[in-house]
Amino acid sequence: MEKIKLCLSKKPLPSPTDRKKFDHDFALSTSFHGVHNIVRNQSKIRKLIWLVVVLGSVSLVVWQIYSRLVNYFTWPTTTSIEVQYVEKIDFPAVTFCNLNRFQTEAAAKFGIIFFLWNIVYKVLHLQEIRSNYTGFKDAIDFLASHQNFSITEFVKKNGFYLNSSTLLECDFFGKPCGPQDFAHVFTEYGNCFTFNHGENIQAKKKVSVSGRGLSLLFNVNQEEFTDDPALGFVDAGIIFVIHSPKKVPQIDGLGLSSPVGMHARVTIRQVKTVHQEYPWGECNPNIKLQNFSSYSTSGCLKECKAQHIQEQCGCLPFLLPGNGIECDLQKFYNCVSPTLDLIEDKGLCTMGTHNSSCPVPCEETEYPATISYSTFPSQKALKYLSKKLNQSQEYIRENLVNIEINYSDLNYKITQQQKAVSVSELLADVGGQLGLFCGASMITIIEIIEYIFTNFYWICILFLLKIPDVTPGTLPPQDRLGKRNHIEEC
């Protein structure tokens, strides 16, 4: 402390007159408007008026800046909608499934396949496995005796297939296409087939004329393919979903169905949505999926379920992405199904908000569709197709499905979530308020900081110099006086 005092004592300190002159000079020279009018005016009334004006302006500035900061930290957003017209537009992927999932002959020999598929399908759509199902006991016995049974191979071999007998016609933008242009994919409907799949070399298909696109004629062949009405599968036709080529198909809840004997005309639009990251929005740009090229909520949920199942059961359901040992039916029933219930009960795989397992994607492309139906075929076309396919007219009515998918117009809509207030806009707003009410700028703020720092520095020096010296071997003056009086009395 003495060294500090010695150092400070060598520096010349301003006298009270100098400090008063410093304050007066600052008031006259500062760029903070109004202050010099308080100092310079001789009239006390004018001084008072200017003091009120300056204090009122400062109060308004503080209130305005506070309200701007409060508004900024509520993270407000705006939504802009823009329509872009283009000469060519990317065609989406379309996944088709037969509403009757299994071949009749295989289902007749192996009737418990419906119950077994319900167990497997639970990984995509949580549902209760009903113990009162007629084949429940047979299925449990089968699980115990056929642990090496591969339901993957069974469904792939005995489910719906796509060849020249089930896909009678395929036309894309005036050019013929066929089963080779479709990629096989497993969904809750078993074997499904995707046109313009993301992993396909020909996936970069573009449409240059509206009103034309993909035209397909399916034969669902009700005699060859069947399903179990007891499980709710009572329709006949094709169910399909239109999605981005980079996105996994999600049939459940998003699928469009076309019954037999109908011509479904589907008109689509492309809508791109951009979400802001937290805290302005709910997306998280840092999340990357291991098994998909682009992020999607459905793909993320699948990976989340796969991770928990692999940790608990040591295997991986074939309907979920990833590399691992495929779960057999016994593990599906004894481990995978309870694990899925646990995931649902404890909310281990959630979606939507930024802190959930799977927040919304920062960018996504959707294809809203408008669908209309007409009876297919007409009386004249019925005779033509009956002769061409060598089938009865009744067979044509009960098995053929015509689907046509095209763009309504060559444009796409961008719905973009944007920050309502950026950092630069906040600074500009604050600077505008300072300039409007006080005529202040960044230079003014630096002047005030310098003034406050200088005065604080002088106060600290004066405070340190006034601290009395107290050393371990020295008594304070009053103690020395008391000791002297005590000696004199003795």
Provide the fold topology.
Elements: H1 2-9, H2 16-29, H3 35-40, H4 44-72, E1 77-85, E2 89-90, E3 93-98, E4 102-103, H5 104-109, H6 113-121, H7 136-145, H8 151-158, E5 167-172, E6 175-176, E7 182-187, E8 190-195, E9 206-207, E10 213-219, E11 225-226, E12 237-243, E13 256-259, E14 262-274, H9 297-313, H10 329-346, E15 351-352, E16 358-359, E17 363-366, E18 369-375, H11 379-389, H12 393-399, E19 400-419, H13 423-438, H14 442-465, H15 477-489
Parallel strand pairs: 14-19, 15-16
Antiparallel strand pairs: 1-19, 2-9, 3-8, 3-12, 4-11, 5-6, 5-10, 7-8, 10-19, 12-13, 14-17, 14-18
Helix pairs in contact: 4-13, 9-10, 11-12
Family: Belongs to the amiloride-sensitive sodium channel (TC 1.A.6) family. ASIC5 subfamily.
Main location: membrane
Keywords: Cell membrane, Disulfide bond, Glycoprotein, Ion channel, Ion transport, Membrane, Sodium, Sodium channel, Sodium transport, Transmembrane, Transmembrane helix, Transport
Description:
It is a single chain. By secondary structure, the protein is of the alpha+beta class. It is 40% helix and 22% strand. The chain has 15 helices and 19 strands. It has helices at 2-9, 16-29, 35-40, 44-72, 104-109, 113-121, 136-145, 151-158, 297-313, 329-346, 379-389, 393-399, 423-438, 442-465, 477-489; strands at residues 77-85, 89-90, 93-98, 102-103, 167-172, 175-176, 182-187, 190-195, 206-207, 213-219, 225-226, 237-243, 256-259, 262-274, 351-352, 358-359, 363-366, 369-375, 400-419. Strand 7 and strand 8 (190-195) form a beta hairpin. The chain starts with a helix and ends with a helix.
